[in-house]
Amino acid sequence: MTDTRKDWDTYFMDIAYMVSTRSRCSRRHVGAVLVQGKKLLGTAYNGAPMGMPDCSEAGCMISEEVSLVHIDGEQQMLKKQRCIRTIHAEQNLLLFTDRIDREGSTVYVSDEPCWTCANMLANSGIVEIVFHRSYPKDTDKVTQMMNSKGIVFRQLASYEPPTDTLTTVSN
């Protein structure tokens, strides 16, 4: 008899995507899961602070940032638009889990962490971040930081999320 169960990466990433369906942000639904060994310790999604209007009620609150980056040896301006109404899934995960639980744990997140979330995760006690969808605007510096910190940082590129959890993603 063959084992037809999902592997652990798929199992926990499926949960992250299911959690993301709670988000009411019109730009991006993100889910995060904290796991120690094979034990699920917490889940979170992106959204407005409790009791505050969210993006579906009040619209996105867009902040625009411009930074200089080197692409193919040339310096170019990179424009980033971020909704600042929402607390990111990774930030909510850190707010609602205990430090002791995070020590030595893995975070599964539907989307690659942005620079701010990566900084917070790097200081949280976790030892691994597993993500599915890339966030190319911050990939290079986030990957470099994770390597410097010794945090395993990997993308599940061939992963297929459950179809009932998919939303349109705008950058």
Automatic annotation (TrEMBL):
The answer, when asked if Disulfide bond is one of the entry's keywords, is no
Using the record's annotation, list all stretches that form the CMP/dCMP-type deaminase domain. Answer: 7-154
Which domain of life does the UniProt lineage start with?
Answer: Bacteria
Q: Which UniProt keywords apply?
A: Hydrolase, Metal-binding, Zinc
Q: One GO molecular function term?
A: dCMP deaminase activity
What positions does the entry give for Zn(2+) binding? 88, 114, 117
Q: Where's the active site on this chain?
A: 90 (proton donor)
- What protein does this entry describe? CMP deaminase
Protein source organism: Paenibacillus glacialis
Species classification: Bacteria, Bacillati, Bacillota, Bacilli, Bacillales
